[in-house]
Specification:
Blueprint: E1 10-14, E2 26-34, H1 38-57, E3 62-71, H2 82-92, E4 98-101, H3 104-107, H4 111-123, E5 128-130, E6 135-136, H5 144-174, E7 186-189, E8 192-195, H6 197-211, H7 216-225, H8 238-245, E9 254-256, E10 259-261, E11 267-269, E12 277-279, H9 289-305, E13 325-327, E14 334-341, E15 344-351, H10 352-356, E16 366-367, H11 368-384, H12 386-399, H13 403-431, H14 437-484, H15 493-499, E17 500-505, E18 510-515, E19 520-524
Parallel strand pairs: 2-3, 2-4, 4-5, 13-17
Antiparallel strand pairs: 1-3, 5-6, 7-8, 9-12, 10-11, 14-15, 15-16, 17-18, 18-19
Helix pairs in contact: 2-14, 6-9, 7-8, 11-12, 11-14, 12-14, 13-14
Length: 527
Amino acid sequence: MRKEDFNMKAITKIEPSEVREISGKRRVAAYCRVSTDMEDQLVSLDTQKSHYEEYISANPDWKFAGLYYDEGITGTKKELRPALMQMIRDCEDGKIDYIVTKSLSRFARNTADCLELVRKLLAMDIPVYFEKENLDTGSMESELLLSIMSSLAESESVSISENEKWSIRDRFENGTFKLGYVPYGYHTSDGIISIVEEEAKWVRYLFEGTLSGKSSHQLARELNEKQIPTRRHGHWTASTVRGILRNEKYTGDCLFQKTFTDFQFKRHNNKGEMDQFFMEGHHEPIVSRDDFEAVAKMIERHAKEKNIVKADPKYQNRYPFSGKITCGECGSSFKRRMNNTGNIKYASWVCQEHITDITHCGMKAVREDALERTFTMMMNKLIYGRKPVLNDLLENLKGESHDDALREMKAIDRQLERNTERKQTLRDIMAKGYLEPAVFAKENSGIGAENEALAAKKEQLIKSMNGSARHIAEIVELLHYTCKAQMTDGFDGQLVERFLERITVHSDEELTFHLKCGLNLRERILK
């Protein structure tokens, strides 16, 4: 079974049973998918964990072998569920004898995946029990019933998805759709979009700079020099700047359904395949429409001068290192170029800022074959030294308990509830005339500031928990590969996509590989 790169957050396992007890009890694992909302997820996980622990413990011949779970929204394909893949690997390693799950639709949302997984597990003599359908694959005489029921589950999933799409389109059309994510410069709360002035001033800076003749590369470099953070606290790049300059939301307008999901649950840019809905004056603008249109014309004119066609495959990521190399000197992205030396033709990667203005960035180009050799060497090192490197890292991450973070989040929620009560008490006292307006305003403002600090702290705790879980899933995947792989001299571009987050080039002699599992490995470039 091919294991694809995972682009979702997941916590792979809770309280695993590493060894079989002498008693010979059947080791039973549970699999589920939970809500993508963090608070709902914690409640759902806690409920399902309690349910399965009680359900399995009630059978004297069973032993609880762990709960595996993934987020629910991207569960339509098995490759996008790392916890499910981890459970299969644990089955292959002889750690599980039996699996229970809520329903066919929770286990697999298409017939092919369901049958493939069930056949694979039955080949290892591991049955699956589906609670909702009361179906035990270990006692089935044929796959016909499973095929029919999984087809129904798949149809149900598609039906639910279509209903959700219809609901969203209806809200697009009547103008009641609430944006879940807003661009840099804005903040949303309960569907209300407001301007974040500290960010908005830099949005205006970009539009003004473009109108004065500055390039996207120049503007990105200036913001990096001023140490202005992006929304995700990363480096500014020319593509980030262009994304802001092309976003109509900065004029206060909103274009809905820029992307869509097909019947196979794949997301695409909407190039006319689906209706789009435009709402003027949707929210408060940051820039004027005149400035936005003037910048759009400048971008279009520059593209024509350089013969750049939007969405041309020439400019898409069609090489293993495309979009993954960053300059350690100026923070710009690297671009692939073909070179000729005598009769020798070769590819190299060079900083885009260096191409634009060599005085602003002196980073030298790096040959593509040198990058390939260096990446292959790094992967060979991981294969050879997986035990001291990956095993130790995995154990350290697994050892980090989320209990303290969960307790702290609960304490924050309790304090927020108390603050709500304090605010209500202040309003009641104020209404009765027992409190001066100035005193009320001061106290109310203090509670509001405290609530903001508590909410920020809670968000940071959630991000920390999610980041740790994602790294565990990525390390498990890398460890599984390195345990079976052989060291090689040949470059495999698929491994770049599978394990590599990005590369920082420090010089033409040295670079750092940033892996998706969180490892940062500094290497000398093999010439």
